[in-house]
Amino acid sequence: MDSAVAANKKAATVGFMIAGILIGIGAKVLLDSIGAIATGAVGRFVTMDLVRHGFPVLAGLGSFVALQANAAVRVWGDEVVSELKKIVWPSREHTVRMTLFVCIMLVLSGAALGLLDVVSGKLIQWLLSKNLFGLLS
After folding, report:
1. Is 11 helix (H, G, I), strand (E, B) or coil?
2. What is the pTM of this model?
3. DSSP letter string over 14-61?
4. What is the pLDDT of residues 58-116, one digit of tens each?
5. Which residues form the domain of 133?
6. Are 33 and 74 contained in the same domain?
7. Is 95 in the same domain as 56?
8. What letters, b where the CB count within 10 A reaches 16 and e where it falls short, cover 66-101?
């Protein structure tokens, strides 16, 4: 087997492992949420240690095995890894320059919005103090 193909398969497997972990975490959060609001038999069942800890692990492992067992998903994973390797990443210098530009624009936008907030607040205070519409007694 070509070393590039083997590397793609390893990267895809790691991606499937991460997907399984995320599904397990999602299952844990879902069970904790159900356990917090459920009462009676459902609440007791969901809060059992075997269910609270075992189901997320089984969900994660099951999803990993299902992803690995499906040939179409494996091919898709290999293709995704191949396409990711074609990405031309920006140089460090370009990344630093663009980050500085974004930070400067954020500061300028924040200053402009802050100035607009202060000016509009003063204008509204002035209008209310003049009682132009006769609404205040």
Report:
1. helix
2. 0.62
3. HHHHHHHHHHHHHHHHHHHHHHHH--HHHHHHHTSHIIIIIHHHHHHH
4. 999 999 999 999 999 988 988 898 898 899 989 999 999 999 999 999 999 999 999 99
5. 90-137
6. yes
7. no
8. ebbeeeeebeebeeebeeeeeeeeeeeeeeeeeeee
